[in-house]
TrEMBL record:
The gene is argH. This is Argininosuccinate lyase. Keywords: Amino-acid biosynthesis, Arginine biosynthesis, Cytoplasm, Lyase. Residues 366-433 form the Argininosuccinate lyase C-terminal domain. Its main location: cytoplasm. The keyword Cytoplasm applies.
């Protein structure tokens, strides 16, 4: 028969409508094994406090092992009448250990401290998995960068041609934010590694149970400092949601570029057949669906964060049932990222770049104008004048429908006495790239160093 955890003071059972609203096993069941792990640790502190005999502890742990096996195999499942994962598992424990022993485990704990602990346990594991998948994407980008050490492309600002850059430099510009996302998960874990178990409903336990022992048992660095905070706050969950949303946004920025680069007009990349899709009506189509889904799912990941933050806003201390709404947003983020990241990594590692077309376009749109100005500065011309002179070169070229390097020596001299033929050394993509050799710049030597640094950082995680 279904067991309620709170029947005593009620004359009748819950209405159908309440039960349907209140029920959470359809999403919190994924925490079942963490709940059982928590129960093992809790049984041990009950024993340490003298509330379970040696034999009772042994029998309790055996029953929990059987329950764990049955949960894993699917032999034990929540019933519709089980309010939540904790309710279902208490029923399962009592079925296996008997109601006398099984009924002892709930002493000194509450679903409030349990659920706050389980969510942290679960998210700490998932953050590691997701971090690893992010590194796979970073790896794919690094490999593509390494495979194209000299390829140039038009660097853009405002989506307009700005200055030539190395393709490798551009690809690495997507690596660093991803590595920061991994760092954010690692840094987040410092705050997530505090166990609320032992906080009870809100005020702590009167039974002499040691929260630090439970925390250590469950792999936490320690217990929370404050039982009210431990049961009522969800900032740690929200921070996980932020990092996940930020990661989605970082992926979507590259996704957007792939979508644009994959158009006929750009023609910068070709997608592998295994990582693109067709159309049901247009036989010629090959669509960048992974990139589009990445872009779309970024919205969903942000929505999960926004929904959670909105739930938390204005909640008084301590536990409120609103907090049950904390789980689905982060579970959705975990599920979304664990399917998205491998597909994204596969798409990146199988991209083919049309480096010839990219290089051809790199100097077009007068993207070497800054190089003329900076060359003049190196000749001692004030930048204000140099900027004017380079601008005049662009105007002349635009009028005549030619590019900067088409200007003759006579044209150059007519525009400014400072424009000697020596300026031609920067009127090539190679010259322009080579000249940007300050740390972090796009010069091939600097990008090679940057690539090494990224590899080293990735290897160190
Ligand atoms: N299922 C709840 C949650 O996810 C935990 C139960 C707390 N319920 C209660 N009535 N105090 O937050």
């Amino acid at each position: 028969a279904p067991v309620s955890l709170w029947g005593g003071r009620f004359a009748g059972g819950p209405s159908q409508a309440l039960a349907a609203l209140s029920q959470s096993t359809h999403f919190d069941w994924r925490l079942a094994q963490h709940d059982i792990e928590g129960s093992r640790a809790h049984a041990r502190v009950l024993h340490s406090a003298g509330l379970l005999s040696e034999d009772e502890l042994t029998a309790m742990l055996e029953a929990l092992d059987v329950l764990s096996t049955d949960v894993a195999s699917g032999d034990f499942l929540p019933l519709l009448a089980d309010e939540d994962v904790h309710t279902a598992l208490e029923r399962g424990l009592i079925e296996r250990a008997g109601s006398e022993l099984g009924g002892k485990l709930r002493a000194g704990r509450s679903r409030n401290d349990q659920i706050a602990t389980l969510v942290r346990m679960y998210l700490r594991e998932e953050a590691k998995v997701i971090g690893g998948l992010v590194l796979d994407v970073a790896d794919a980008l690094v490999e593509q960068a390494a495979a194209h050490p000299d390829a140039a492309m038009p660097g853009r600002t405002h989506l307009q041609h700005a200055q030539p850059v190395l393709l490798a430099h551009h690809l690495l510009a997507h690596v660093w934010p991803l590595l920061r996302d991994v760092d954010r998960f690692i840094d987040w874990d410092v705050r997530a590694a505090r166990s609320p178990y032992g906080s009870g409903a809100l005020a702590g336990s009167s039974l002499g149970l040691d929260p630090e022992a439970v925390a250590a048992d469950l792999g936490f660095d320690g217990a929370v400092e404050n039982s009210i905070d431990g049961t009522a706050s969800r900032d740690v969950v929200a921070e996980f949601a932020f990092v996940s949303a930020m990661l989605g946004i970082d992926l979507s920025r590259f996704a957007e570029e792939i979508i644009v680069w994959n158009t006929k007009e750009f023609g910068f990349v070709r997608l592998d057949d295994a990582y693109s899709t067709g159309s049901s009506i247009m036989p010629q189509k090959k669509n960048p669906d992974i990139a589009e889904l990445a872009r779309g799912k970024a919205g969903r990941l942000v929505g999960d964060l926004t929904g959670l933050l909105t739930t938390l806003k204005g909640l008084p201390l301590a536990y409120n049932r609103d907090l049950q709404e904390d789980k689905e947003p982060v579970f959705d983020q975990v599920d979304t990222l664990t399917v998205l990241l491998p597909a994204f990594a596969g798409m990146v590692s199988t991209l083919t770049f049309d480096t010839q077309r990219m290089a051809e376009l790199a100097p077009q749109g007068f993207s070497l104008a800054t190089d003329i100005a900076e060359w003049l500065v190196r000749q001692g011309v004030p930048f204000r004048v140099a900027h004017e002179v380079a601008g005049a070169c662009v105007r002349v070229c635009e009028d005549r429908g030619i590019e900067l390097w088409d200007l003759s020596d006579a044209d150059l001299a007519e525009i400014s006495e400072h424009l000697t033929p020596g300026v031609r050394e920067v009127l090539t993509v190679e010259g322009s790239l080579r000249s940007r050799d300050a740390a972090g710049g796009t010069a091939p030597v600097r990008v090679a160093e940057q690539l090494e640094a990224a590899k080293v950082q990735i290897a160190e995680y």
